[in-house]
Amino acid sequence: MRDNGEVTTPDWSRYWRSPDRPLEAMHAHFEEHVYHRHSHETYSFGVTDDGAQAFRCRGGRHTSAAGMVMAFNPDDPHDGHAATDLGFTYRIVHIGPELVSDVLEGAGLPLFAEPVVRDPVLAGALRRLHRALIGGAPALRREELLHDTVAVLVRRAATSGRPRPPLPRGAAVIAERVRRRLHDGFLDDVTAEDLARAAGASRFAAYRAFQAVYGMPPSDYHRQLRLREARRRIARGEPIGEVAAVTGFADQSHLTRWFGRYFGITPGAYREAASDRYPTRLADLPG
Questions:
Q1: 2 burial type by CB count under 10 A (0-12 exposed, 13-18 middle, 19+ buried)
Q2: CA torsion 36→39→40→44, rounded to 10°?
């Protein structure tokens, strides 16, 4: 929409991240924003406050309405957009696997088979943790709520998983070779021929295998690796323009555009989000 000649949007997002641990939280309202298909290195647990979010994950279409919990395993590819014109408001917490492992004291990492869970107990636990993280609760209280929330999530929603449909013969091996080549040269201008050579297969076989195993094309996965590197560099305080150049984006605006499609915020907002307290823009939040 336009206001006095300027483009405005009803969308907003606020972000918090720990300066030294794999723990982040976001509170957002989106009507127009559309997430590009992506995944996280972390477990990601969201709770929808209002409206409804539609997304694709694990081969199915899902909707999270008010009060529902979303549970994504590390590297679960998914997208997301408003399911209605009124949009949706949600809270999400990203927790690194190592933190989950610490809470479970070596019991093994859990698997969440259902991307959407109807459970008011889980929703309440996530809201309490989220509010503590973004609201500047004392460190000890944050630790206690992190422990309690992970424990209740595992107890009420984790599963041994469902068997996956069988993959094409040899697909797992080919996909792993492609993945390794992408990781080894994620700042390179990788071509389909490079991936085919690394996989020992044709270009199309490499593409099909990777898509079947990882749920996204190699080009999306490659961009995601560059965005993750950009995020790490921005967190270290490197200038955003320099980060864009080093990580293979045409310029800062190009990086900003893709950063928003994957993470829901701008690189500048992410840089400012590392604090033991919530950002000073807390007063901007509606309600």
A1: exposed
A2: 90
Residue 229 reports pLDDT greater than 70: yes
The residue count of the chain comes to: 287
Q: Return all residues near 55 (Cβ < 8 A) that are at least 6 apart.
A: 35, 61, 62, 63, 64, 70, 78, 79, 80, 81, 115
Tell me what the pLDDT averaged over the chain comes to.
88
Question: CA-CA distance, 221 to 195, in Å (whole number)?
Answer: 13
**Which stretch of DSSP H or E encloses residue 232?**
helix 218-235
Render pLDDT for 3-62 as a digit per residue (tens, 0 to 9): 455 557 799 999 999 988 999 999 999 999 999 999 999 999 999 999 999 999 988 999
Domain 2-157 top-level CATH class: mainly beta
pTM, entire model? 0.81
Domain with CATH 2.60.120.10 in the chain: 2-157
Tell the CATH superfamily of the 171-263 domain. Answer: Homeodomain-like (1.10.10.60)
Q: Which two tokens stand for residue 274?
A: 């590392």
Q: How far apart are CA 115 and CA 48, in angstroms?
A: 13
Which of 186, 203, 122 lies closest to 156 in space, CA to CA?
A: 122
Kindly tell me the number of DSSP H helices and DSSP E strands found in the chain: 10, 11
- For the stretch 117-173, pLDDT in tens is 999 999 999 999 999 999 888 888 988 999 999 999 999 999 854 445 667 778 999
User: Could you tell me the two tokens for 282?
Assistant: 């807390």
